[in-house]
Write the structure tokens for this entry.
Amino acid sequence: MKAPVIEVKDLVVRYNGQPILEGVNLTVYEGDFYAIIGPNGGGKTTLLRAILGLIRPDQGEIRIKGGSPLEMRDLLGYVPQYRTFDFRFPITVMEMVLTGRLGKIRGIARRYGRQDYRAAEEALATMGISALAGREVDGLSGGELQRAIIARALAGEPEILLLDEPTVYVDVPTETQFYEILDRLRRRMTILLVTHDIGVIAACVNKVACLNRRLYTHDSNEITEDMLQAAYHCPVDLIAHGVPHRVFREHEDRD
Amino acid sequence: MLSVLGYEFFRNALIAGLLASIACGVIGTYVVVKRMVAISGGISHAAFGGIGLGYYLGIDPIAGAVLFTVGAALGMGMLQFRARQQIDTLIGAVWAAGMAIGVLFVSITPGFAPDLFSYLFGNILLVPAGDIRLMALLAAVILLVVAVLYQELLAATFDEEYAAIMNLPVERLVLLLLALIALTVVMLIRVVGIILVIALLTLPAAISRQYTSRLKAMMLISVFLGIAFTMGGIWLSYLLDIPSGATIILIGSAAYAASLVHTHMGRIR
């Protein structure tokens, strides 16, 4: 059995008194490609932000390789769903990707060294956007920008990659390429992906859970109807849009 | 025309314009790219409270202005981070309260408040030599801080959340930037006055943004634009005997309008 890299125990997060996450238990092992699906507002982003140490849990505990999120942050790469930055900001793709290295540099007056540039160039190459290095972020298409944001996460050479709705801004052909890239990345790092779109769960995912305030796990890559039912509180149509190797169970009829 | 350079007051005015341009080119760039124009307006108007306090206590009004601008900047910054207050509401409150405190102090100070008009609208031709030394010190501090923390400030102004994940002290960096804005505002009060500070802080950076996508280049171009506006304004105001602060701002505004027309026409073609 491989070692757990993320352990979430009895996690409770409230916002203005309302529980966003309740009694969430999650264990992600080294090498997992873990997908968490759930409706919008189900707490997926909150869970990732708690793992990153951006939100303090009201109850429960989060350990990353045995340490606290704040201590172990530099092992994590993060691809946020909401673009927290201003598109008009004067910054090039290379400069933006390099900021993903800042966590590896200590002290004040941080400067990028040769190793930082090498890691940033590698990340751009992995995402297939080396040619965009000198381009201003302001002129990029949605898909290009999303690749740049993932490259920023990869530049930090993370052991664990957290992705929040990574395909929300990309079209279907790009999405397919995108999962090919993730399939290659999973050999190098543990991946935890959250999405509201059941149709995007690719074949390469090895574990799936459903999140809607509580987490429903099955410790396999199979989404059972019970899990979906529990997460969405209503029967969910499990029609996959022409993607092969789908791992859903037979759809039972109910009234 | 050049004979006027023989006067100390005129040389002081040019040096003050130069120093103010360096500060507002560098700090104004952050103000524009991080969309802190309104908060800078709040900080500059809070300065009037400090100037009123200075009159009332019989100390240098500029010292009062430093106290009030830095206090307002750090107060608004911390409230935004900690109390999750809407920033535009905070700015509105600080903006008006600063002016109100100033009016109150000036009214209860016995006698006449000299130079009050020049604090509101600036008079670069009246900058004393002591203020020049203070301005030089402030400009040096600003350049040093930005040079040392360039990458940190770039990351924190571009994407606060990601910078936090990179273990940068984002709150402290943003508060430091706000304090630098406050000090820049104080420098600019001498040049263009409280009411007009916001324009000199933002116009050079807003123009240079249209011609470059690099932060460093933006700063450099903004400094030179600031120098052109202040030098041009001082010269024109001397020549036509009109207020210097207003002249500087109108030259800057005209240049901004021209740059908008220029880049817009370029896009149509």
Remarks:
- The first helix of chain A runs from residue 44 to 51.
- The beta strands of chain A are 4-15, 18-29, 33-37, 59-64, 76-79, 160-164, 190-195, 207-212, 214-217.
